[in-house]
Amino acid sequence: MLRSIAVAVGFALAAGGCVATPAARPNATAEIQLTENERALRTAVRALDARYEEAGWSVGDAGQSAMRLAAMLLNGGSDEERPLPSMAYLESRRADGAPASAILADVREARDLAAEVTTASMAISSRGLVQSRERLAADLALTERAIADVRRAVDLFETVAGELSAELNEDDRNALNARILTLRQEFTRLGEAADALSERRRALPGSIIG
Length: 210
Hints:
2 strands; 7 helices; two-stranded antiparallel ribbon; disordered N terminus
């Protein structure tokens, strides 16, 4: 998958609903209106990204552990112990009094937001309306941003389910694991959507603007 270049292009295009591109004459620009599916993708990714961040679903334990180790090495001592994101999230759900029900609702919402991105991304590649490699690179970068969020959310929910397992009866445990599986399946579909965008971009004969 594309990385730094695609991400840079993607966030430039994600900011608005049109793209400024070079026109036939020097020093002139023309605005290309994004397709309905491209606009839908941008809306879906913004909604997913904002909600995942707000809810604390896309913060990885591994990243915090690495930062804690770095702080210890830099400071020559132990960093102040703080709960890992998954544990902080679980404690917040325990405080609500019904952690299993709350987590089930969170996973369903996380999956639904991911599905919106998948649908819009797949529509861009399947309908063939976008004939610009640059725009497809931007669409791919946005899809990859959602993939990164969803991957961290899957990791978090699976960790939380493991920690909570002993407190649940078999039915609740199975229901939670099944719900998390739907999010993992949507993560797989997002990857397939990104691959389709990448394939479509590579299939274009050249960099076609407009």
